[in-house]
User: What shape does this take?
Amino acid sequence: MKIQILRDQQNLIEGYEHVVMNGAELDLSRFSNNECSEIIADNILDAVPIRYMAQTLKLLTDKLRMGGKLVIGGTDLRLFCKQVLNETISPTDANAIISQCQSMTNLEEIVGLVSTTNLKIQTTNINGIHFEICCTR
Assistant: This one.
């Protein structure tokens, strides 16, 4: 079973079960623990309040089978601020980004959080203001 978790119905990947978040709520109850070979959640961390980040990561990890792959990502707060200060991102665009976020964190903080689980980080990637972490269970 492969799952793609999205914040809206855009950028659907064919061949995956799709789960659309309802605000900050992520309901994976229709999937059994250890059922998924792959979970793509590359743009959901912004939708999760910071106080629920560890809980969300545990939920995703529980659904993965041993050897399963998890891709998570979000907006890096430090890179976002730097681009706003350097005027690479306009105030209008910055407001649009902020209005869509429950939280922003950074790559290092999520890497630290992942390291407290039984996930092993395979790769990290930064593209503009977004980061992505690929890990396996």
